[in-house]
Amino acid sequence: MKKKRSVRISCLLAKLFSLVIFISSASFADSQISQEIKTGSEAIAHEEVASTFENLVNQFKEGDFNQKMEVINQITLLKDKRARLVFQSLLNDRLFYSKDVSQRVYSGETTPNGYRMIDVTTGQVIGEVNQDSVTKIKINNRLRKMLRTSLAQLDMTVKDPDIRLKAVKSIGNDLNEDTVKFLRTVLPLETDNEVRTAIKASLAMVDLHADDLKVRLDAIKSLSVTMDSEYNTELKKLVDKDSAGNYLEQDQRIIEAATNAIKKIESRVSFYEHLQTLFFGLSLGSVLVLAAIGLAITFGVMGVINMAHGELIMLGAYTTYVVQLLMPNHIDISLFIAIPAAFAVSGLFGILIERGVIRFLYGRPLETLLATFGISLVLQQLVRTVFSPLNRSVTTPSWMSGSLEINSVLTLTLNRLYIVGFTLLVFLILLAVLKKTRLGLEVRAVSQNRAMAKAMGIKTEWVDAMTFGLGSGIAGVAGVALSQLTNVGPNLGQTYIIDSFMVVVFGGVGNLWGAMISGLSLGLANKFLEPYAGAVLAKILVLIFIILFIQKRPRGLFPQKGRAAEG
Amino acid sequence: MFITKILRDDLGGKIFLSLLAAVIVLVPLFNLLVPASSLFHLPTYTVTLFGKYLSYALLALAVDLVWGYCGILTLGHGAFFALGGYAMSMYLMRQIGGRGVYGNPVLPDFMVFLDWKELPWYWHGFDEFWFAMIMVVLVPGLLAYIFGWLAFRSRVTGVYLSIITQAMTYALLLAFFRNEMGFGGNNGLTDFKDILGFNLQSDSVRVIIFMISAFALAAGYLACRFVVSSKLGRVVIALRDTESRTRFIGYKVELFKLWIFVFSAVMAGIAGALYVPQVGIINPGEFSPLNSIELVIWVAVGGRCTLYGAVVGAVLVNFGKSFFTAALPEVWLFALGALFILVTLFLPYGLVGLLRRKRRAV
């Protein structure tokens, strides 16, 4: 406001207006501290502001870039809600004025025939106009940068602290006299802790180079609670050495403080990075658990290796795809229908496989392995013929997309978070089924000692079919979850089958807890090895580990007890 | 004398070996002596295709030995085959010399492409044929020895063993896909020019390699037959049927298993070494678990525990594969899948078993 203005005004009326602008904007500059406009007299002032706004916007039509900058500055100070639209349109090169007499300023959206115009002062939709009937208001890069900062300043008045936080970050990228001043004025008003820290950090970037020792130490202190790499780089500059190995910085206290701050930041960053890896590991692990848990049941009860298990997962994923095709307008709830549908489809296929093939091969586990592998080939080709060999993409429901940003290092993607929870849920349900229901009791009896169970009057054939159906159904449910993470294609099952085997073999057959623990630990091991070894080598190392582990404990982590296990 | 002794009670073997002998004589005749215009001319392409089948047949023999006679369902024999193949192709790669695209006299093209400055240590020596041949035998044998020694000593059996053999080949698959391994990564090794100074593309060299494959198959068959009809073979069959009883009688079961496993892996490696010059390429895909399972089905289709059945199965299934993937690509996986299911359900002794039963009925 202190700067001299040179706004070109042609008529007296406009001059009068400019006076009003001066007064009102100046008063607003002071009243940035004051909150809302409530009293009557202020309401009148507001009206005046409104007309000033219109005037200022009109000034975009003429003048060079320097004048435009000045106009932007003034509009920012007005704190008018409509300013946002103007700035945004200007930033996107979508602010126009009509070539007719009215010369009104519009914000335009591109349409096939021209632009769909919105009057920026009234908010009215004017409708579509031809490209030739309007003129674009031009800006340059300096203006763009300034617009971004101005937009951010507008955002600082919003109630949502997340938006304010983003605004601070955006202002922080464009630190100059004005923005620093602005940040200093908003800092005492800010109530949200996180936003305060961010403002302080941004200010500290400037204060680091102040003259006063105390200011500098304070700045280092406020940077030490951040995690962004840019702050860290700035701190590192303080402890830079010249070629002879002497510190460039003279003051020993600054060097000491900066070194400590860097250490603090780095240890915090690495802590959160480990948390992030932990989360990735858990999410990979829960995917493995989900894929393997059905296998653990069928393998445990019948001693049967079902090589078609991966394809049952694939069927579940395709069921999700089909359900979404059937209800394209209700994607958000389609998953809740897809889960039981996938359970039913894969479960039925499983029972079909058991009744059609596997029951003739009991007692010959190696032959079962081959036959079920044949089934897996047939199912793959079936899907290829019906759905084409191309990958199908399943839409992620809106409530599952996005991510939970804890801080700049730790970000949890929502779909993975949901899958971890979903795995737990499936696991608990399965545990309940096996421990609390009649079927579960019979399943456990048969898996411990088939002959004795049969002697006790359990229909083992029926139990076999049901177990197989249950295990396959769980595979289908796993398919629903996987469809949210990867592409749905005919090879989906193959990519998971070997991993599932590893989980089952590592955890011990027929043991839900074993599958859970081994799945999670394999997932974690994979993700924690990745930074050191790379993704592929990590996987190879895990495989080698399992091969060696089996030598030590041939029956897995939690071997089955009882006579049947002696085999 | 020795051969007749081995084949004394082996009618199938006699038939098989006579057929093989006929093939060894007739194929070069029809290819080299009959003029190309004649109806009876055998194109070199077909000769090479047959040669490929023969190397597969040798591989199937190896699988039959461990699965049929020793009861170890290996799902990782493709790995030994591929290792043998890689050893051979490393020799062929070094033979290209300065004729590669980049013209580097020492480094193969892919290493130049990756900007490597010198040959990795494990590539040294492969410019000598004898060294490569030793490696063809040694590398698969050593891997099988280490793997088998670990697995059999701790009594990993049955399905568990199958799964960890699968894990082994899967781990190798992943490893060979990495460019850093120095085996050509994804693309594998290809573009071979000649072997022992002879041009690989010429008809006569191809026929000779075909004949070598046929001889190797015959020798492999005789060796396997010798093994299974020896005392060692009897012990192996005994341990297949009841492992614990054999152990209690006093045999060191794991040593027998290990011996058979290593022997079979070496055979698979040789098969791989014969396969590569005929096909002209090897890539990590050979390690894929799918390939290894397919081997088992060749043996199952032909009839396990007969040796010649494995050969029949390998040739038939691969012939079917060549035919279907060209004529009806959609149907091939259905057919292969159905084969897996039907053979295990209805033909536990394979096609050969079908014939045998009829003969017994008569």
- CATH topology of the largest domain in chain A: the name is ABC transporter involved in vitamin B12 uptake, BtuC
Q: In DSSP terms, counting alpha (H) and pi (I) runs of 4 or more, how many helices of chain A? A: 21
Q: If you average the pLDDT of chain A, what whole number results?
A: 81
Helix content of chain B: over 70%
Please indicate the count of domains of chain A.
3
**First-last Cα distance of chain B:** 32 Å
Q: Quick one: which chains have the greatest interface?
A: A-B, 46 and 43 residues
- End-to-end CA span of chain A: 89 Å
What's the level 1 CATH class of the largest domain in chain A? Mainly Alpha
SS-based class of chain B: mainly alpha
What is the percentage of strand-forming residues of chain B? under 5%
Low-confidence stretches of chain A: 1-13, 24-40
Shape of chain B: globular
In order across it, which strands form the biggest sheet of chain A?
4-3-2-1-5
Order of helical and strand elements of chain A:
HHHHEEEEEHHHHHHHHHHEEHHHHHHH
User: How can the largest sheet of chain A be summarized?
Assistant: 5 strands, antiparallel
Secondary-structure element string of chain B:
HHHHHHHEEEHHHHEHHHH
Please give the oligomerization state of what you see: heterodimer
